[in-house]
Write a structure and sequence with these properties.
426 residues; Alkaline Phosphatase, subunit A; 29% helix; globular
Amino acid sequence: MACYFSRRDFLRSIGTLACGAMMTRNLTAKESKQQSPNFVVILTDDQSWVGSSVLMDPKDTRTRSDYYQTPHIERLAKMGMRFTQGYSPAPFCCPTRRSLLIGQTPARHIYQKDQENWPKEYRRQLTIPQMLKQANPKYITAHFGKWDFRFDNVTPEEMGYDVSDGYTGNFTGGAKGTGGPKAVDDPKKIFGITRRTCDFIDRQAQNGKPFFVQVSHYAVHLDIYYQQESLDKSRMWQRGRKHNMPEFAAMTNDVDLGIGKVIDKIKALGLQTNTYIFFMSDNGGRLTMPGQPEAELDRNHPLRNGKGSMYEGGLRVPFIVIGPGVKAGSVSKTPVTGLDILPTIADLAGYKKALPDSLDGGPITNVLFNQGIGHVQRSRPFLLFHPPRRPEEPADGGHSRQIQACQDLAGQQAGAVRPIKKSERG
């Protein structure tokens, strides 16, 4: 027996189905919002602000490499927000790594052994993995790659990580004087680090666990190691006026490949709608490179000086953030620093407790969700930089530097440098 629907019945049934689909879609979106987000921090080593093919300031053609090709870092920039004024906490690797973990400037602890009992005090500070577990005990945290917390040799597990490569340093990944430049199967451990990262993400996705993972590459620190196929490619590229060494270009391309594999894994698992990725370097690029042919321009041009310096070349680094709510392809001129990562993650993860008074960073969420415009609220209205000194150096050696966060008439921030008064130190 045939069944017939009137036009009114048909339209009513279609309307019911549409409403049901809309309710399901809204419920799914609501459930997604209620889920704790995932976090990935990708930290490269010694990568210059102009050490990739990303134009760090779209209005200045000098602000990218004129030789290196990094299509996956370009993908990151297209997927999220690049900051034209991104800064590392220090112009060296170890103090930056310590500072990222607790959101405190190295100026508080200088070079770890300078202040009596500081190593013991450091271990009592709130860390990113500890904070996340307080926000949601289901978080699983991991650190892969270069750890390098030298002097007191504290381990990732002691600082709250569930999974790690253990205590590692420059020599783990092929430090200066270990035989480079040279072609090897896994240059600078890039692909081993990437594989462990992707496996970790896979496991957490299968188990339905929110996660935090820091991917700390040994590249592009010396010595120079690369895949032979990457070197073959880089030799075909046109060399630039500031970058012209194929071996270094190949190593840069290899670390870019590793970054791309992490992005691909997150997308393959459908996690991109609930995952934030922070990308930065631990300090500025080296000014000199053993074996590099003479170039017309400095390696960090247009920035002054390089790694170890308190000038922009030592502190200004690539800084990109992607994630839900962050406008793709956006650019911000607001000054940000690696110290802002902990409070930003706390904000995004829904951390309810008050953060420590000793925190020097601030959440950048209002900038991320406002197309790059806004002010970062920190304990002080400036970014403080101090050259980390070793115990044998004089107590007042080096020069401190501040970047004052100034609101201009357009509501965007510009960097201004001024001397530090003695009353503001400490």
